[in-house]
Amino acid sequence: MRQHFEALRKVPANHVPLSPLSFLRRAEALHGPRTAVIYGDIRRSWSETARRIRAVASGLAGLGVEKGDTVSVLSPNIPELFELHFALPLCGGVLNTLNTRLEPDTIAYILDHADTKLVIVDRELAPLLSKAFALLGRTLPVVEIVDPNAVDEAPLGGPTYDDLTAANPMPIALPDDEWDAIALNYTSGTSGRPKGVVYHHRGAYLMALGTGTAWQVPPYPVYLSVVPMFHCNGWGHPWLMAMLGATVVFTRAPAAHLILEAIRTHGVTHFGAAPIVLQMLAEAESDAAPFDPAIRVLTAGAPPPPSVLEKTRSMGFDVMQVYGLTETYGHISQCLWQEDWNTLTPAEQAELQAQQGIAFPMVEEVTVIDRNRGAPVPRDGTSQGEIAIRGNTVMAGYYKDAEATAKAFEDGWFWSGDGAVQHENGYVQIRDRLKDVIISGGENISSVEVEAVLYRHDAVQAAAVVAMPHEKWGEVPCAFIELRDGAAATGDEIITFCRTHLAGFKAPKAVLFETLPKTSTGKIQKFQLRDRARAMHS
């Protein structure tokens, strides 16, 4: 009997590489006449969008982009960046979306580390790219996006994105191997320099399927593009929306008034956003009638304050918190609503909604493990361990960093670095961050990176940066500084110094001068400083 089963093999008829490019093929064939994109005065159908994507892929190939080549993109959420999520994998390239809030030094580092072959840049961001090139010590070939809705800075001299759309469209073909890289995303991690996280076609495909199932998204949603596509490729939502034949609405800037206007004007049904965006919307919308039907919202980046969840529910937002990391393609657990929560007060419901929840359908397992014992923690809501993840939407590994990859995958798990408890119902809840990463408004800030800048100040003898709770941003950097003998500095001076070397959101929002607590070996005891920062806030 066994030999008969073993004789059956994978053949083209029964085994096809998984890739989100399948969703584009489906969208063009099935959803062709339906509206795919709304941006200002632009309206494009799925037929038009798919043809543009296939033309851009051909144009990129004409510029020499080949299989495995990294193409970095510096752009806000606009249709061109959405299209590149399909055009680059179609021509074999690897999409590297750059955080538009980063400082030139980090962008220069990523361009170098990623072995970037070509940069596609929104012309409004061209000055930022020019500064990065200056620090890099060389320029790279550039394609410029000319958006009439943006400030038109001086061109860098390359072809335009519109030039690519004039190429002869290539047919949609799947990769030979679903393990081929589709995207390279950089995360702050715990070191001063970001790590490159490699996504493959298989993971991107399964991420889209799993999200659609977990979020219970019906066909033809109207999706507002708020989650930056430089964050885990917008949590994989661009690929999901093609599968569902969605209408994707763009506002370019995630300003509260633009988001609310888009929701009302276009009948938005779904969007994702960091808690800071939800707070902005709650503050901007005070007296308006709640949305009916409710808008389905995913939130992630940091545990949302229960007060924000309570307020947004009254606004007509059906918010579900999700949890994930760059290394897991974005969200891999959800705080799925339980029927027995219906009888609780809004405040009690919001407290429960702030949990990180249970695994998405495409994730094999999300659990909390006591690494000292090598076993899951009791489901008592108090015993703390580290969140460990296993599944097909875990990264292929860190780019050019085998040692960090091996460490992240020890004992057959991906170790998140997040300390958490597990409740009786299996729901996970973060209690403390094991990594020294501060999540501010959905942006990851490496404390080591900020400390490195502080140490460059002539008056600083020692420095430590920890997270301080903040009503608006969730967390902000708080700097504790030990001055050199005879030196003097003010908090404002330190903050101004940091802002000249870092993106504004990374600069400390509070500075305290004192002798730093240290162990006998001279290591700064950050846990004491975290307690101080929390006490200061309260």
UniProtKB/TrEMBL annotation:
Domain AMP-binding enzyme C-terminal per the UniProt entry, residue ranges: 449-523
Cofactors: Mg(2+)
Catalyzed chemical reaction(s): 3-(methylsulfanyl)propanoate + ATP + CoA = 3-(methylsulfanyl)propanoyl-CoA + AMP + diphosphate
UniProt-listed Enzyme Commission number(s): 6.2.1.44
Pfam families, per the entry: AMP-binding (PF00501), AMP-binding_C (PF13193)
All copies of domain AMP-dependent synthetase/ligase, residue ranges: 27-399
Cross-referenced InterPro entries: AMP-bd_C, AMP-bd_C_sf, AMP-binding_CS, AMP-dep_synth/lig_dom, ANL_N_sf
Record key words, sorted: Fatty acid metabolism, Ligase, Lipid metabolism, Magnesium, Metal-binding
The UniProt record lists the keyword Protease: no
The protein's name: 3-methylmercaptopropionyl-CoA ligase
